[in-house]
Design a protein that fits this description.
The chain is of the alpha/beta class and about 190 residues long. The protein is built from 6 helices and 4 strands, in the order αβαβαβαααβ.
């Protein structure tokens, strides 16, 4: 474990360098640091400070991670950016968070085109409601309220996202780039 502030390029570069030193190469990078900021906030009540904080972690942090990793990634490597269903469809009260996750989707698709000739794949995971500290923060502790918005009427578990990340990291997804895998219990169905 290496504690890293993704808003600081130098710390992300040190993290990547530590991984390369430890394993002699870099095959997979998962950019999963994220923040929801003030949580559910109507646009007219949101603040520029909240927006900037969310963008700094969710967008700039992802940018820093890819920027540090790309020169070190092996041919056939995989970058997995964690987005959200909120980055694929707007939700009331989440405009700042949604804007940040739409940006992650755009970065991912652009880099997929740019890096395809190098053999590096770039994709996103777009989770729906998942039982995490962030979900508890946004819902005031009642994650079941957002789980009820899914076709499966439940929140997902972190392990369900991890399984999809393993797939994107594997050779089984070698022909997959510039895509998002939605893991949302049918929320967007």
């Amino acid at each position: 474990f290496v504690r890293t502030d993704v808003t600081k390029q130098s710390e992300v570069e040190a993290l990547i360098e530590t991984a390369v030193e430890r394993w002699d190469r870099l095959d997979v990078v998962v950019a999963n640091a994220g923040a929801a900021g003030a949580g559910v906030t109507p646009f007219v009540d949101d603040t520029e400070e909240n927006l900037r904080s969310i963008l700094e972690i969710n967008v700039i942090g992802t940018w820093h991670t890819m920027r540090a990793a790309i020169p070190r990634l092996a041919k056939g490597g995989s970058i997995i950016n964690v987005s959200s269903v909120v980055g694929l469809r707007g939700f009331s009260g989440f405009s700042s968070y949604s804007a940040s996750k739409f940006a992650v989707e755009g970065l991912t698709r652009s880099l997929a085109h740019e890096l395809a000739p190098t053999g590096i794949r770039v994709n996103t995971l777009a989770p729906g409601p998942i039982e995490t500290d962030m979900a508890r923060q946004v819902t005031g502790g009642d994650v079941d309220v957002i789980g009820s918005m899914t076709a499966m009427a439940r929140v997902g578990q972190p392990e369900e996202i991890a399984s999809a990340a393993v797939y994107l990291a594997s050779d089984g997804s070698s022909y997959l780039t510039g895509q998002h895998i939605v893991i949302d219990g049918g929320m967007l169905a």
